[in-house]
Amino acid sequence: MHSPPKRVSADDTFAKLLRVHAWVRGERPAYRLKDLGIWRTWTWGEVYAETRAIARGLANLGVKKGDRIAIAGANRPHLYWSIAAAQMLGAIPVPVYADSVAEEIALVLENAGACLMVAQDQEQVDKALSILDRLPTLQRILHDETRGLADYGDPRLLALDEVMRQGRADLEKPEIAAWLDALIDAGEGCAPSIMLYTSGTTGKSKGVMLSGERCIAAARDTVAFDNLTDRDEALAYLPLAWVGDHYLNYAQGMVAGFCLACPESAATAAEDLREIGPTFHFAPPRVFEALLTRVSIRMEDASAMKRWLYRHFMTVARRWGEKRVNREPIPWHARLHYALGELLIYGPLKNTLGFSRIRVAYTAGEAIGSELFAFYRSLGLNLKQLYGQTEAFLYVTAQADGKVRSDTVGPPAPNVKLRIADDGEVQFKSPGMFIGYYNDPAKTAEALTPDGFVKTGDAGFFEPDGQLKIVDRAKDVGKLANGQLFAPKYIENKLKFFANIREAVAIGDGRDHVAVMLNIELASVGAWAERNGVSYASYQELAGHERVAELIEKHVDAVNRSLSEEPAMAGAQICRFLILPKELDADDGELTRTQKVRRAFIADRYAPLVKGLYDGSAEASISAEITYEDGRKGKLEGKSRIRELKPYPARSVAA
Q: Whole domain around residue 617: which residue ranges?
């Protein structure tokens, strides 16, 4: 390991933090990677040495301060270290989503003006090579994994291993090692540290520039808030290009010094989670929904005795589990009963899910159903909610231990100023606040208020206990033709609380009534079909089955019943719905890469179905272009039956 500097300047850049970790906890584990079924571990000292080698190698290729470096691939140590290496040089890493199609990558790299890409594997290299003629600034493509690339003759391709080998050799020379030390010392915390592109839910993605000192300040606040230390461990499975990964894993890991474990692949992430047993974990609601669906399916196939034990002890958990997590007093007989449940049900279940060691867990991105939220907390999981944005460097609000609610996202996070504007929009100032949008001063000015608060675009309000409740995107909140409030996301989230509904798109602004288009959850509906003798050969066939429509209609009816009990939403009950013949897909532009619905795009793409929902038709047809995983295009044609529901009369909960 390289000797520590004589004088360590303020830890206002990630390069300086990494250097401190290498000196203070050089033998502690920093990164893990599962490869061919075996976990490999690197210490902080080794990570610092490897990152220095990449930095020197990049410098040999002409990378300098201010250059933009694209990072493409899944969660791999060498990609994280390439981010840190670029930051050492004062360059700006620009992660892109691993599942992006070539066209999406081209748009990001064109905007960023990237001069070099570090790609994980052949798939990412192929996408980059297919768009090189559109990217005159992109001079080099480095690849981490060499499989399948031996016969590629493009001179712009280089193995990252070779770049690192040359970097290591150079750093053996004292003058070059001293040069890199000086470069790290000279790093400016106020300079852009990374560029993360917004999801593009409502339009073109924008490059959000974040500085090192602000990122580190924000991470320090939340590390202290949740008492994270170098003894913690997290599984890095979130997309590199998403702010959640850069904050929760990279920044907090760099501040706290905890270990980051990279799964073998997305397909093995659940198994790898069990093997690692993280102590800090984040998952969006849809992941928790999928896990509960899997548990429910397995319990349906279990023996009668196991089903009885599960149902009995889950009743105990629902009554006492959350009180136990909140450290509220509970009777001795309840403690004893719960302890028996921990031995027979809760403990084995948490072990199966990989949750046995978790101290702190968060969910965010969408509203989470109260029953789903309560299920995990009743097992003893300290699951909390946060609300964040890329422009805030994630945290805007966060729930404290013991002060957790399923219907809110918490009070302002540490050192965050939060307010509700006169029009109901949530606005904030935060320690990690963005510098601005890359090359777009007009959009930057548009995102800020005159006194420097960031406009979130979300409508919300504070509850009496100070917790924030998000209603919807402010621009999506509208009215029906009769003046009734219409909040599409609110309705969609109620629908998605049912395990059989994967996605929902509500329509109604300016119309006579509310209608929705739905995606079924293939895993849970498929399991239901198997148990009930419903045969099918494809998603389209299952989605179009009459008995499936009857099943989903019960869920929609339950949502209407719930809406009827809410004075503000009773007039926005769902009158007609259909099940889409295909799953909404980011490759087809229907979802963002963070799985958010592009509502306007969908309404336009499925205009014939929308027309059918409002002209009284019993069914509607669609012909849509689809994109396969390898990028090829195809055409899907199908019909959707439209079902009609009778709304409930408005009533109070007490009625």
A: 476-644
Task: Read off the pLDDT of residues 447-475 as tens digits, 9 standing for 90 and up.
Answer: 999 999 999 999 889 999 999 988 888 88
Spell out the residues 6+ positions from residue 580 whose beta carbon is closer than 8 angstroms to its own. 517, 518, 519, 543, 606, 609, 640
Are residues 215 and 345 both part of a single domain? Answer: no
Instruction: Render pLDDT for 509-536 as a digit per residue (tens, 0 to 9).
Output: 999 999 999 999 998 899 999 999 999 9
With contact defined as beta carbons under 8 Å apart, do 493 and 514 qualify?
A: no
157 and 23 assigned to the same domain:
yes
Within its chain, how far is the Cα of 508 from the centroid? Answer: 28
Interacting residues of 370 by C-beta distance below 8 A, sequence separation 6+: 406, 407, 497
Q: Which parts of the chain have pLDDT scores under 70?
A: 1-10, 200-203, 628-631, 652-655
Contact 416, 398 (CB under 8 A): no
pTM of the model: 0.88
269 lies in the same domain as 341: no
CATH number, domain at 503? Answer: 3.30.300.30
Q: Which of 207, 169, 54 is CA-nearest to residue 116?
A: 54
Q: pLDDT digits over 25-42, tens only?
A: 999 999 999 999 999 999
CA angle (35, 36, 38) in 5-degree steps: 65
Give 281's strand partners.
361
Predicted local distance difference test score (pLDDT) of residue 203: 60
Same domain, 577 and 552: yes
Is 397 inside a domain boundary? no
29 φψ region: left (φ > 0), alpha (ψ -120 to 50), beta (else): beta
Is residue 492 domain-shared with residue 601, that is, in the same domain?
Answer: yes
Please name the residues in contact with 150: beta carbons below 8 A apart, sequence gap of 6 or more.
none
Q: Helix and strand tally (H, E) in the chain? A: 23, 27
